[in-house]
Amino acid sequence: MSAVEAEPEPGSERASGPLHLLRLLWRGRAWNQLVLLLLVMVGLFFLVPDPSLAVEVLIYSLWAISLNLLLGYGGLVSFGHALYWGFGGYAAGLTLLHVTHSLWVALGASMALCGLLALGSGVVCLRRRDVYFSMLTLAFAQLGYFIAFEARPVTGGDDGLGNIPTPPLDLPGLSLEMHPIRDPLPYFLLCAGILFFAFAFALLYTESPLGRVLQAIRESEERARGCGYNTRLVQLITFTVSGLLAGLAGGLDAIFNGLEGLQPYWSLSGVVVIMVILGGRSTLFGSVLGALVVLVLEHYLSISFGDWPLIVGAVFVVCVLVFPQGLWGLVRLEPLGSWGAVAWTRRLRARLSREPGA
Amino acid sequence: MHLIVNQVFTGIVSGAVLVLLALGLNLIFGFMEIINFSHGAFFMLGAYVGFYLLTAFGSFWWGLALVPLLLLLLGAAVERTLIKPLYRRSAVDPLLLTFGLTYIVTQLVEMIAGKQGETVNAPSQLNFQLPLGFTSYPAYLTFVAVLAGLIVLGLWLLLERTSLGLIIRAGIRDSTMIQILGIDFDRFRVLVFALGIALAGVAGVLNSPVTGVYPEMGNDILITAFVVVVVGGMGSFWGAVLSGLVIGVLVSLTTLFASVYASIVPFVLMILVMTFRPRGLLGTT
Q1: DSSP per-residue codes, B127-156
Q2: B213, B41 in Cβ contact below 8 A?
Q3: Are residues B229 and B240 in contact, defined by beta-carbon separation less than 8 angstroms?
Q4: Which terminus of chain A faces fewer neighbouring Cβ atoms within 10 Å, N or C?
Q5: Å from A162 to nearest chain B CA?
């Protein structure tokens, strides 16, 4: 990760306005990632035989991206991201069951609830840093888990919230009935569209002055505070945005499955942490890669080997030890022409020949 | 009235187990600046090893005596092979690594011993009710509380009264300085990590007759142990002891009066402490 560039003050003329952001995006290498994302989506569409796996990859990618904003860009390792995923699912499910039959209202409810939830828990969690922060997020997730577990009349407890109806897809001038199981195509396209916009939003966020300050805090919080930035506020905004996106992903998942199940949130949070770390925390696209790799591994390993988490865990441990920048760290795009396998193998060899940690 | 007294005792016993876990976490965190996410996995492993020793030798005491030694060796091996390469990385990497380790250990135990878990009988010598004036209490639980108290006392004497403890305390305060003074810091890191793991193992063995052994047991208790550490104040010895007992008793009493809320109590307490006293009950910074 290169050093943070000196950006003008957030309030000054040059830095403001969406045009400036677009210019930043253009200048940076960020567009490549959007193109890669589209390639992955096309690949999923044509190459993955199981459509529900393809949809799950899209939804988990969204979730992993939301965590990567915190973990990769903010240096804040949240072990409680399942809280927003789970409660986003409940919000969408309950809205569809009891309030309205509109997809957009349900997803809006997920985002609103989880945004608020993240804001509230973020205020407490961000009182401490580093590993304390991780433990606090973990504790909040378990708190949410127990609340969901005990609130059986509302959430269905450990049976899960079932029979969530699938809403029609309402677009201007078009209304499509959706059947995730029988005909997953509309749902795939919906998730792909949402993921695309969320990814673009996250790119803009990380390239914006706010996102740059976030990365500066990761490198040195004291220095960022010394520059006059309100570091707590920047982190809190990111935490809220991250929770909101995770809630959106959770809502999409609950609608897709027609069910919001309940499993301990610490292990569910762990899954998404594994995705982000394995894929590479230094870029947003790494999270998509991580979600893809973990879900595909899970899909094919679980058929032949019941204890597949063992393999995922082992791959993860090796990854933390030897490739802390994840898979994407191995293949990361250089400005020009190192797409090729030559650069990739060279980097791999350099990694392997070096004593780990030296 | 009896019921309340009994619940308080039960709270102290479960609190004592939490204290053993929290002290290990605290020691490792203070000295090595590592949060050991796999602490719960080693707690579970200790309980399982104890269970297998019990079935092999037919006596609970063998498990209680051998588990700390075995886990001491295992802890040292884990430190050398997995933690050492991460010394100069950010504090987050060991957290992630030990998280992955938890996954692996839990899955391995599930593969070998099965998911369903086993019940463990308390040793026959302690299979009676201890009369306490107006009420009585299972002797085994009393034994757990007493032994945990002795371990805490021993650990405190080790830290306060021996030259080894002096080095550990100095390392907790300023690890750079003791390296400058020519102390082989590396060896003490292995020792402290192994000691923490051994404590987790003892806690696992002690707890096994109470809850039985099952692969998820470590994960359930680990998060509460984290809460105990945060509430007591990271790195604070007596803070961990105090908050472990307080949380144990509070949970136990809530179970009696409003069982629905029992699992939520530690987290609510933690949020309150974080809001009004972020450094923890007895924490210094």
Answers
A1: -SEEEETTEEEEHHHHHHHHHHHHHHHHHH
A2: no
A3: yes
A4: C
A5: 23
Most confident of A13-17, A137-141, A347-351: A137-141
Residues contacting A327, CB < 8 A, separation 6+: A278, A279, A280, A286, A289, A290, A293, A319
The C-alpha of B217 sits at a distance from chain A's nearest C-alpha, in angstroms, of: 13
Say which of B93, B264, B268 has its CB closest to residue A320: B93
**Cβ–Cβ of A312/B103 closer than 8 Å?**
yes
Q: How far is CA A341 from CA A71, A196, B242, in A?
A: 29, 28, 58
Tokens of B227: 């809460």
Residues of B in contact with A128 (CB under 8 A): 274, 278
Q: Please give the pLDDT value at position B29.
A: 87
Provide the domain limits for residue A70: 27-307
Q: For residues B253-266, give the mean pLDDT.
A: 87
pTM for this one? 0.84
Question: How many CB atoms within 10 Å of residue A201?
Answer: 13
A131, two tokens: 């590993």
Q: How many CB atoms lie within 10 A of CB A116?
A: 15
Tell me how many degrees the CA angle B112-B117-B122 measures, rounded to the nearest 5.
120
ipTM score: 0.85
Q: Per-residue pLDDT averaged across A90-107, rounded?
A: 92
Task: Closest CB to B223: pick one of A139, A149, A273.
Answer: A139
Q: Looking at residue B213, what DSSP letter applies? A: B
Say which amino acid occupies B20. Answer: L
CATH code for position A104: 1.10.3470
A261, part of any domain? yes
Q: Does B276 touch chain A (CB under 8 A)?
A: no
Predicted pLDDT of residue A29: 59
Rounded Cα distance, A143 and A149, in Å? 10
Query: What 8-state DSSP symbol labels residue A3?
Result: P
Q: Using the CB atoms, write b or e for B26-37: b if 16+ within 10 Å.
A: bbbbbbbebbbb
Q: What residues pair up with B251 in beta bridges, in sequence order? A: none
- Is residue A227 within 8 angstroms of chain B, CB to CB? no
Residue A337 DSSP class: S
Residue A314 lies in a domain: no
Report if residue A59 sits inside a domain.
Answer: yes
Helix axes B265-276, B237-257, angle to 10 degrees: 130
Nearest CB among B104, B274, B278 relative to A313 is that of B104
Tally of domains within chain A: 1
User: Does B108 contact A310 at a Cβ distance shorter than 8 Å?
Assistant: yes
| Helix, strand or coil, per DSSP, at residue B8 | helix
Among partner residues B88, B227, B278, which is closest to A139 by beta-carbon distance? B227
Does the residue A357 lie in any domain? Answer: no
H helices present in A69-184, as ranges: 82-94, 103-125, 130-150, 152-155
Interface contact flag, A75 B274, Cβ < 8 Å: no
Q: How confident is the model at residue A40 (pLDDT cuts 50, 70, 90)?
A: confident
